[in-house]
From TrEMBL:
Lineage: Bacteria, Pseudomonadati, Bacteroidota, Cytophagia, Cytophagales
Enzyme Commission numbers on file: 3.1.-.-
Name recorded for this polypeptide: SGNH/GDSL hydrolase family protein
Domain of life where this protein originates: Bacteria
Species, as recorded: Spirosoma soli
Coiled-coil segments on the chain, per record: none
MF terms in GO: hydrolase activity
InterPro entries from the UniProt entry: Ester_Hydrolysis_Enzymes, SGNH_hydro, SGNH_hydro_sf
Keyword ATP-binding: no
One Pfam family named in its UniProt record: Lipase_GDSL_2
Length: 312
């Protein structure tokens, strides 16, 4: 039998790793940055539950530090939140987040709030572009092994549908996607697939909605965010119409998704509490020591579910 050349063997090994693992080796912590949609966390939990069930030998800690109302542009409209507080600015807290979380992989989803829900304007657009470039630079300095930007979700104007503020987000998304070529950034597109889905549904059901308020997607909308990310990571979820359907081939999928959701609710508030922020009216998070105990307990339950599947 001919011996495989070392270079070819290393290449085969590398390709095998890429096919079997969604993140570079060794990845331990996966961070999600964003606004209220990320804070809601359904799409984060969907991605985590899918990767746990389909890559059970891998152990990734998913950290959600999404902060409602936040921008990367540093902008805030007059009388935001009825004048109670201005929009929080990621610039104020990022260094603390990175120092405490020490992420290996970072997903960042900004844009929805950055255009301040107004028509496209060069000054606001420039602030968004500069904010995203600053963010990418800071994540590189923090030695993140992989940085993946997500285009903003679709916006559904109550009167104009996707032809209102969503046109501003079209421009933001187009610019962000262009950085894949110009700056070699990694960008997963959720904006245009969501927009196409919404427009297509409206053809037969004019009352169809992904978000009751036009901004914050429901369960289906969060799946339409998670799905392109999973596809971007090389997962085969092309035909799945929900996270439940994507997990249907795993007997413990539903139980693991439920546990992941429970854990995310505790941990996201604990991380916000630990890293600090200037947004008032947020639920107080538990101390990190207490949250870590809950994390470990639920991790044991998740691993027990995975062992059940193996034993069946």
């Amino acid at each position: 039998m001919k011996k495989i050349p070392l270079a070819l063997s290393l290449l085969i090994s590398a390709l095998t790793w890429v096919q079997a693992h969604p993140f570079p080796k060794p990845t331990k912590r996966v961070l999600f940055l964003g606004n209220s949609i990320t804070y809601a966390g359904n799409y984060v939990s969907a991605i985590e539950a899918y990767l746990i069930t389909h890559h059970p030998k891998q152990h990734y800690e998913f950290i959600n530090v999404g902060l409602p109302s936040e921008t990367v542009s540093g902008l805030s409209e007059p009388n935001h939140a009825g004048g109670r507080f201005p929009r929080p600015d990621l610039h104020e807290r990022l260094s603390r987040v990175l120092a405490q979380t020490r992420p290996d992989v970072v997903f960042a989803c900004y844009g929805m709030n950055d255009g301040i829900y107004m028509p496209l304007d060069e000054e606001r657009f420039k602030a968004y572009r500069e904010g995203m470039k600053w963010l990418h630079s800071e994540l590189e300095k923090a030695n993140a092994k992989r940085i993946i930007f997500l285009t903003p979700p679709v916006h559904d104007d109550p009167t104009l549908g996707t032809q209102g503020y969503n046109l501003t987000l079209d421009a933001y998304s187009t610019w962000l996607l262009a950085q894949k070529d110009s700056l070699r950034w990694e960008v997963a597109d959720i904006h245009f697939p969501m927009t196409r889905y919404l427009d297509e549904k409206r053809k037969t059901d004019p009352a169809f909605q992904l978000a009751k308020d036009g901004v914050h997607p429901g369960e289906l909308g969060h799946w339409l965010m998670a799905k392109p990310v999973l596809l971007y990571l090389g997962e085969t979820v092309d035909s799945a119409q929900s996270i439940q359907e994507a997990l249907a081939d795993k007997s413990q999928g539903e139980a693991i998704l439920r546990l992941v959701n429970q854990r995310q609710i505790v941990m996201k508030n604990a991380w916000l509490n630990a890293t600090g922020h200037k947004r008032p009216e947020m639920a107080p998070g538990p101390p990190m020591v207490e949250a870590r105990r809950t994390y470990s307990m639920i991790e044991q339950q998740i691993r027990a579910e995975l062992r059940k599947k193996k034993a069946q």
